[in-house]
Amino acid sequence: MPRYSYVCQNCENVVEAFHPSDERLSFCEQCQTESLKKVLYIPTIIKNSAINSSTNKKVGDIVNKKIEEFRQDLRQQKQDLLDKKIC
After folding, report:
1. Nearest-CA neighbor of 7 among 86, 21, 31, 63?
2. pLDDT (tens digit, 9 = 90+) per residue, 26-63?
3. What is the CA radius of gyration of the chain?
């Protein structure tokens, strides 16, 4: 459901509401008048650029490398503990 912003023409109260596009709010709860007006704005659309994708891939590669290093360390620690119990 879309989000709409309204401003009261009487008291300048700002109201945000979620409702279907065919509905409109007009009553201001703060000043108890029928003076709400819808605020028109352009929605913001953010697209991932090639630079962000390559940066994210590099960060993901670094994280995966660190995870693998931690796994190897854990395996080694586990093996060391098992060796100590056997001896």
Report:
1. 31
2. 999 899 999 999 887 665 555 655 556 666 778 788 88
3. 29
